[in-house]
DNA sequence: CATTTTTTCCCT
DNA sequence: AGGGAAAAA
C-alpha cells in the first residue's frame, strides 16, 4: 500500500487576482477584466486575465492598452501602489482566506503558490469508506474525466456515469478511492466558494504531478480526474513542457535529447537510457513518471519561507544616483518591515537573515546577505544600502551610482520560531545544562532579550507537546534543475570576473570594492564574531546558521534513537533503480551532466 | 527601455 | 553563501 495508493488533489483558484478584485467590486462579475501592475507605461502590464477576456485573445503579459484594442469592454483593475511600488498585500490576504478554509477541513495541505494548494486526501478517503454512501452523478456536478473531451453537459454526464458504474463493478475497486476523492473535492470547492466567494478548479489523481497536470484540462470552475488506466492515452497527448518542472530549459533538453515532443514517446526509453543522460535521480524520476508513478509527498506547510519586496527600474528609470538607491532601499525596507511585523504577530517567528539583490545595467545580478539583529525600517534600509555601496564604482565624492541598478530587492528569511527550537531541542537532548554558550556573543542573534516576559510562559508549556518529529523525506522526487547555459559571448566584457577565489572568499571579495569608504562596519573582517563554535561538533558555524545546525544535531540524535527500536524497511519504491549501486553516483551524475550541458550547440 | 513581482528549490 | 531555473498571478 506504499506504492501509489494515494489520492491527491491540486486546487487552483481561477484567475485569482481578478476574482479578488471582483469580490471587492461585484459589478464587474461576468465582464472581461484583468489585473495590471502600474499604468503609465501603455496601460500597465497584465498579470491576470479572466476567462471572459481570454475569449477575446487577451493574455497575461499584455499591456492594458493592447487588451483594450482586442476587447473594447475590457476593464483593467490596477494593483495597489504604495510609495510608487506595486503592493500585492490584497492578494496575499485573500489567499489566506482560502487557506483558512482548506486548513480547517484537511490536515495535509501544501501551499504551492499564492492560489494553489495540494491536498493529500488518502486518509480522509479511508475514513469515508468506513461509512459507505451511495453516490450518484448529482454528487459530481463539475467533474470531468481526463482523456475525454465533452462538448455538452449531457455528454459529460454520460461519461462520468459510465465511469461510476465501472468503478462499482470493478472487483478490485482500484478506482473507487478516486471517486471518493472527487466527491470530497467537489465538496471542498463548494465550501471555498461559500466561505470566500472564489471559484476554483481542481485535478484529482494519484500523485502531485498528475493532479497538477489534469487540473488544467477543464477550467474554470471544474475538476478533472486522471485515472491510472487513462495515463498512457493522456501522456500520448501531453507536450513535455506541460509537466511541472519541465516547462523551461530542462524540458527543452529532454525533447532534444530523446527526440520527443510528448510524454508518451518517453515510454520507450529504458531506465538506463534516461539515467545515462539525466543522471540517476532525474532519470529515475522521469522513468517512473512516464508510467504514472511519482512519489513526492504533500508536505503540510503553510508559512512562507521568505518575504521579499523588489522592483524593476528598466531603461531610463534605472537607479543611477546614490540618492535614488538610498531612497528605494528605504521604500523596500518599509514594505518588508511591515510584512515581517505582521508575520511575527501571526506566526510567532522572526527572520534572521536579510538579503539584498540587485541587477545592474550590465545585466549582472548579485545577492548579498547580512544578519538581522533588530526589526526596524532604518536598520533594514541601512544594511541594504551599506551592502550596495560596495558595488558602486563611482568615486565617493560623486553622487552618481554606477553601474546603474535595474532591479533592486530586499528580502528576509531564515525564520526562527519565537518558541525557540533550540530550547525544545535542549529539553529532549541528554545534556540539557549547557545551552548558554551557544548564544553568548554580543553581536549575534540576541533578539530574545526584548521578549523575555512572553518567552517565560512558553517554556512552561513546551513540555506538554513534543516537537513534531523531523520529517525524514523519502526518495524525494527530484526535478530537473541542473541545467545552465554558458553562452555569454555577448559583447559585455565580463567585468571584474576574477572569481572570488576559493580561499578567504568574503574578505578578498569585498576588498576589491572597498576603494572608498572602507568603514563597512557591519560586515566585519575575519576576526569573525559571526562565527560561533558548535558545542556538539566543535566546528565554527555562522551565527545565523546555528539554529539549523542545532536542528541537524537534534534530528540526528532522534534518528539514532529510532534506529535502535525500529528497522527501516528499505523504501519500497517501485521498479526503480535496479543496478547502479551507490558507487560513483556523484561522479557519474556530474560527468554526464557536464557533457550534456557543454554539448548543447544551438542556442541563439 | 519595459511584463513584473514574488517564491521555492537546486547546484556549486 | 550566492547564482539561477522554474513557476505563478
Describe this structure in words.
By secondary structure, the protein is of the alpha+beta class. Among the domains are: 16-85, MutS, DNA mismatch repair protein, domain I (3-Layer(aba) Sandwich), CATH 3.40.1170.60; 92-290, 2-Layer Sandwich (Alpha-Beta Plaits), CATH 3.30.70.270; 303-431, DNA polymerase, Y-family, little finger domain (Dna Ligase, domain 1, 2-Layer Sandwich). The protein has 19 helices and 18 strands. The protein has helices at residues 16-24, 51-54, 64-70, 89-105, 122-130, 153-169, 176-196, 208-215, 231-236, 249-258, 271-278, 280-290, 322-347, 377-389, 421-428, 452-462, 505-511, 546-565, 585-599, and strands at 8-13, 33-37, 45-49, 75-78, 81-82, 85-86, 109-113, 116-120, 143-145, 200-205, 223-225, 306-312, 319-321, 349-360, 365-371, 400-417, 531-533, 540-542. The strands form 5 sheets. A 6-stranded mixed beta sheet has the order 7-8-1-10-11-9. Strands 12, 13, 14, 15 and 16 form a 5-stranded antiparallel beta sheet that branches. Strands 3-2-4 form a 3-stranded mixed beta sheet. The longest helix is centred in the middle third of the chain and has 26 residues, at 322-347. The chain binds a DNA duplex (12 and 9 nucleotides) through helix 1, strand 2, strand 3, strand 6 and strand 12.
How does the SSE layout of this entry go?
Layout: E1 8-13, H1 16-24, E2 33-37, E3 45-49, H2 51-54, H3 64-70, E4 75-78, E5 81-82, E6 85-86, H4 89-105, E7 109-113, E8 116-120, H5 122-130, E9 143-145, H6 153-169, H7 176-196, E10 200-205, H8 208-215, E11 223-225, H9 231-236, H10 249-258, H11 271-278, H12 280-290, E12 306-312, E13 319-321, H13 322-347, E14 349-360, E15 365-371, H14 377-389, E16 400-417, H15 421-428, H16 452-462, H17 505-511, E17 531-533, E18 540-542, H18 546-565, H19 585-599
Parallel strand pairs: 2-4, 9-11, 10-11
Antiparallel strand pairs: 1-8, 1-10, 2-3, 5-6, 7-8, 12-16, 13-16, 14-15, 14-16, 17-18
Helix pairs in contact: 4-7, 5-7, 11-12, 13-14
The chain binds a DNA duplex (12 and 9 nucleotides) through helix 1, strand 2, strand 3, strand 6 and strand 12.
Amino acid at each position: 500500500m506504499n506504492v501509489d495508493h494515494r489520492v491527491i488533489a491540486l486546487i487552483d483558484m481561477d484567475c485569482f487576482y481578478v476574482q479578488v478584485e471582483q469580490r471587492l467590486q461585484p459589478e464587474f462579475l461576468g465582464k472581461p477584466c484583468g489585473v495590471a501592475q502600474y499604468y503609465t507605461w501603455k496601460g500597465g502590464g497584465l498579470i491576470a486575465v479572466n476567462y471572459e477576456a481570454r475569449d477575446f485573445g487577451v493574455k497575461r503579459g499584455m499591456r492594458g492598452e493592447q487588451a483594450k484594442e482586442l476587447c473594447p469592454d475590457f476593464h483593467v483593475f490596477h494593483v495597489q501602489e504604495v510609495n510608487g511600488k506595486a503592493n500585492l498585500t490584497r492578494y496575499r490576504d485573500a489567499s489566506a482566506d482560502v487557506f483558512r478554509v482548506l486548513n480547517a477541513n484537511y490536515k495535509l495541505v501544501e501551499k504551492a503558490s499564492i492560489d494553489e494548494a495540494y491536498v493529500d486526501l488518502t486518509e480522509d478517503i479511508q475514513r469515508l469508506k468506513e461509512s459507505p454512501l451511495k453516490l450518484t452523478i448529482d454528487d459530481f456536478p463539475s467533474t470531468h474525466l481526463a482523456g475525454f473531451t465533452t462538448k455538452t453537459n449531457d455528454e459529460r454526464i454520460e461519461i462520468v456515469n459510465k465511469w461510476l458504474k465501472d468503478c462499482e463493478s470493478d472487483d478490485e475497486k482500484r478506482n473507487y478511492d478516486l471517486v471518493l476523492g472527487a466527491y470530497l473535492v467537489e465538496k471542498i470547492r463548494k465550501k471555498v466558494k461559500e466561505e470566500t466567494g472564489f471559484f476554483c478548479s481542481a485535478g484529482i489523481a494519484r500523485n502531485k504531478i498528475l493532479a497538477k497536470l489534469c487540473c488544467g484540462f477543464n477550467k474554470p470552475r471544474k475538476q478533472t480526474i486522471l485515472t491510472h488506466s487513462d495515463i498512457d492515452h493522456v501522456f500520448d497527448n501531453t507536450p513535455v513542457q506541460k509537466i511541472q518542472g519541465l516547462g523551461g530549459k530542462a524540458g527543452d533538453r529532454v525533447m532534444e535529447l530523446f527526440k520527443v515532443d510528448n510524454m508518451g514517446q518517453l515510454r520507450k526509453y529504458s531506465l538506463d537510457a534516461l539515467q545515462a543522460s539525466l543522471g540517476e535521480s532525474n532519470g529515475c524520476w522521469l522513468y517512473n513518471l512516464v508510467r504514472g508513478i511519482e512519489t513526492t509527498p504533500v508536505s503540510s506547510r503553510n508559512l512562507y519561507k521568505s518575504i521579499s519586496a523588489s522592483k524593476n527600474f528598466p531603461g531610463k528609470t534605472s537607479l543611477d544616483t546614490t540618492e535614488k538607491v538610498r531612497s528605494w532601499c528605504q521604500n523596500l525596507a518599509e514594505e518588508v518591515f511591515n510584512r515581517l511585523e505582521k508575520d511575527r504577530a501571526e506566526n510567532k517567528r522572526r527572520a534572521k537573515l536579510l538579503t539584498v539583490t540587485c541587477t545592474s545595467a550590465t545585466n549582472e545580478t548579485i545577492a548579498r546577505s547580512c544578519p538581522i539583529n533588530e526589526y526596524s525600517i532604518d536598520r533594514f534600509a541601512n544594511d541594504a544600502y551599506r551592502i550596495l555601496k560596495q558595488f558602486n564604482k563611482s568615486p565617493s565624492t560623486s553622487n552618481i551610482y554606477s553601474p546603474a541598478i535595474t532591479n533592486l530587492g530586499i528580502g528576509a528569511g531564515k525564520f526562527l520560531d519565537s518558541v525557540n527550537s533550540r530550547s525544545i531541542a535542549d529539553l529532549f537532548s541528554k545534556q540539557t545544562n549547557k545551552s548558554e554558550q551557544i548564544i553568548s556573543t554580543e553581536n549575534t542573534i540576541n533578539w530574545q532579550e526584548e521578549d523575555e516576559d512572553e518567552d517565560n510562559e512558553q517554556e512552561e508549556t513546551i513540555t506538554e507537546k513534543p516537537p513534531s518529529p523531523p520529517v525524514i523525506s523519502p526518495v524525494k522526487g527530484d526535478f530537473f534543475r541542473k541545467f545552465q547555459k554558458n553562452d555569454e559571448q555577448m559583447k559585455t566584457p565580463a567585468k571584474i570576473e576574477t572569481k572570488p577565489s576559493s580561499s578567504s572568499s568574503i574578505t578578498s571579495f569585498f576588498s576589491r570594492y572597498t576603494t572608498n569608504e572602507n568603514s563597512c562596519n557591519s560586515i566585519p573582517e575575519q576576526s569573525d564574531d559571526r562565527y560561533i563554535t558548535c558545542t556538539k561538533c566543535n566546528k565554527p558555524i555562522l551565527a545565523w546558521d546555528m539554529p539549523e545546525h542545532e536542528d541537524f544535531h537534534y534530528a540526528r540524535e532522534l534518528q539514532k534513537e529510532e534506529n535502535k527500536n525500529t528497522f527501516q524497511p528499505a523504501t519500497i519504491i517501485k521498479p526503480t533503480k535496479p543496478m547502479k549501486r551507490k558507487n560513483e553516483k556523484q561522479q557519474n551524475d556530474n560527468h554526464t551532466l557536464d557533457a550534456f550541458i557543454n554539448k548543447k550547440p544551438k542556442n541563439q
